[in-house]
Amino acid sequence: MPYVRNDGVNVYYEVEEGDEPSLVFLHGWTANMNWWKDQRNYFSGRYKMVFIDNRGHGNSEKPLEYEHYRFENFVSDLDLIAEEIGLEKFVLVGHSFGTMISMKYCVEHPEKVLALILIGGGTRIRTFHKLGYPFAKFFASIAYTTSAKYVAKLAVGKNAVEVRKWVWEQAMKYTPPYSAMNTYKTLRTIDLRKVAERIDKPTLVIAGEEDALLPLSRSKELNSLIKNSKLVVVKNAGHCVMLERPDEVNRAMDEFISTLTG
Fold this sequence. Notes:
Blueprint: E1 3-6, E2 9-16, E3 19-26, H1 37-43, E4 47-52, H2 71-85, E5 90-95, H3 97-108, E6 113-119, H4 133-142, H5 144-155, H6 161-174, H7 177-187, H8 193-198, E7 203-208, H9 216-225, E8 229-234, H10 241-244, H11 246-261
Parallel strand pairs: 3-4, 3-5, 5-6, 6-7, 7-8
Antiparallel strand pairs: 1-2, 2-4
Helix pairs in contact: 1-11, 2-3, 4-5, 4-7, 5-6
């Protein structure tokens, strides 16, 4: 199994061979690379694709200490994997927290990024629990299953019952409570508004109209802050729009990527 080791943590990734441009996929909080299953199937054999399990998630190592979950760690994980594979210029495809990693990386390594696709993203979060991190941490420690079900309910549109069940099962299987809360602690510190203003790469912003975790207003903000960006809003979809309405998301991605390749 391919890993890179960064500050003592093994980070898992997978590569599918194909043509240029390469697509690098970054998932969100409590998710894993499986969230991209429909995009992986759709683009298989066409483009080279790289899928990463963020530290603390999926098949990556899950350290206990918070120091391993700082924002810069997630960004440097991506850079090490790109170097390990030998990627020179690629499209970053991020969802939720993955959009934040993508934007930060783009500004720090503009020479390596061809374009951005930001799905269900934003420059910052507002504590959706509305109860604060200490209470959320306490609640998750005593009732993680209930907490995960609540987040899964918020993460998808009201009619996506099967997707909601799948999202919850994946979180329970691959993201332990301490990893979720350590990452969430970092999420609360991020504000990338000034970073977004510095991005000058072609950018596609995709949002579910019913997103309850990072509402549509967050994607509209990205669209206004990032020069040369385009916003696509998908109806009848929530935060996990690429799982709920894969055909529409794949089509939007396909059309955007075709503009990069001529």
